[in-house]
Specification:
This protein is α+β, with helices and mostly antiparallel strands and 449 residues long. It is built from nine helices and 24 strands.
Length: 449
């Protein structure tokens, strides 16, 4: 198969799904040439990424040659695809509980989680903090429970309707003056509007930071918002990213366009899932199927595995749980207490992929309430069926969800299937979600970027 040109490949997924107009917001980096659905691409790429993947494969070739090992091209294509899944997957942060129903996306790979509630706790302020650490910073979603009380903007006595860019900058400059030890500088800020959001502002700032014993500069870029048309007592959300050394890239993705063209248009209120899907339960694991999906049956895959089948027209749904502690053959799935998604990448390729190219396979890691899950999407052209898969782990059960859908399915329906399959919740180990989670524990330090 002919390789796609790099620039075409960068936004291939969004072109296939729904090529519609770009967003226009008052946030630096907004690019009218980028589709507002570009975030749908779960495998953003650029020449730097392609060069890194090519170098990785070439290193493997040279090592194999030196050791007298002969491999065919499909094996190197598999290695490249798995490497891409590990280091260049998309990151989705998804929070769904009694207070929040929110999902957003970053075209940047994460490595591990860093969850905390009350990190900034004081008598008037509590923030629940979901962070996914990257090789050069972190991707953040903070839920500000103090601000649900605000009927003005962040306790400034300024009505949001009268808020100006200067007010936003003054707010953060005053914060910096109250804490001079942090040496916050280069403060920027503005008000912006977006159809589904309100209380929406953007800010950026820098401060000195020590990382691994070396002095660096920490840059923090954030969008702040509430959902429109919902109770204003909803908390205020802070979504953005942090990166070191004034480096303008995260995992080789330029930061100047991240917030405006990828993160902002991906923000979604997950309450809409209730409109077209229902929650089912298997061994304490909660998942979603379409409201009108027909339950076909259930069977034992092994004594440790339970499988369910559903059908909706020409779409087929397979759901299964595997009891890891009771399954002696699943030991390699958990390494030092962390579920190892590298095995899922390997297994997925072996079972479902047959062509020596990674042009039409996308990887995303979904952090459901801090629990990671691996989402893969294969959409090889001219095939009758496309495949969506999702794997996760709740501390007891590994969970696998597979959807086969016809290649002609409309883009909007595909997106609904993808949002639905990525939903994961469990009642088995409540404390498990609060722990640190590492995605690829046996490969975490295998490649320096």
């Amino acid at each position: 198969m002919t390789k796609l040109p790099l620039l075409a490949g960068a936004f291939m997924m969004s072109t296939i799904l729904s090529p519609i107009g770009a967003i226009d917001v008052n946030i630096p980096g907004a690019d009218s040439k980028i589709s507002k659905d570009a975030y749908i691409n779960y495998q953003a790429t650029n020449p730097d990424i392609e060069k890194d993947v090519a170098n990785y494969v070439e290193t493997l070739r040279l090592k194999d040659k030196a050791n007298g090992i002969s491999k065919n091209e499909i094996e190197y294509a598999k290695a490249a695809s798995i490497y891409r899944g590990q280091h260049y997957h998309n990151t989705v942060i998804s929070i769904h509980d009694q207070y929040n129903q929110i999902r957003l996306s970053f075209p940047v790979a994460g490595q591990k989680s860093d969850y905390d509630i009350g990190r900034y706790k004081n008598p008037s302020r509590t923030i629940e903090d979901y962070r996914v650490l990257t090789n050069n910073g972190s991707l953040n979603l903070e839920i500000d429970y103090a601000d649900y009380k605000d009927y003005d903007w962040r306790n400034t006595k300024i009505a949001y309707e009268k808020l100006t860019d200067k007010n936003v900058r003054d707010f953060f400059q005053d914060m910096a003056k109250r804490n001079p030890a942090k040496q916050i500088s280069d403060i920027k800020g503005s008000v912006f509007s977006y159809p589904t959001l309100t209380y929406s502002t953007w800010d950026s700032m820098k401060m000195p930071h020590f990382e691994n014993g070396k002095k660096t500069t920490l840059t923090i870029d954030t969008i702040n918002f509430k959902f429109k048309n919902y109770n204003m007592r909803q908390p205020l959300y802070h979504a953005g990213f942090v990166y070191y050394d004034n480096n303008p890239v995260l995992n080789k993705v330029p930061t100047d366009k991240l917030l405006a063209n990828y993160v902002l248009p991906s923000v979604q209120n997950l309450n809409e899932l209730n409109q077209y899907s229902r929650i089912e339960n298997l061994n304490g694991v909660q998942y979603r199927v379409p409201k009108d999906a027909i339950y076909i049956g259930e069977e034992k895959g092994t004594e440790y595995q339970d499988i369910r089948y559903y059908k909706k027209g020409n779409i087929t749904f397979f759901v299964s749980t595997n009891n890891i502690p009771k399954n002696p053959y699943a030991r390699d799935l958990v390494v030092n207490g962390h579920y190892n998604f590298n095995i899922n990448l390997d297994t997925f390729w072996n079972i479902y992929y047959s062509q020596p190219t990674s042009d039409y396979i996308n990887y995303s890691v979904i952090w459901n309430n801090n629990i990671p899950g691996l989402s893969t999407h294969i959409y090889t052209p001219h095939k009758d069926d496309h495949i969506l898969t999702f794997q996760s782990y709740d501390g007891t059960y590994s969970f696998t969800y597979i959807i086969f859908y016809p290649s002609f399915l409309h883009a909007e329906k595909v997106q609904k299937l993808r949002n639905m399959i990525e939903f994961f919740e469990s009642t088995n180990n409540p404390s498990f979600k609060l722990k640190e989670h590492v995605l690829f524990p046996d490969t975490e330090k295998s490649h320096a970027h």
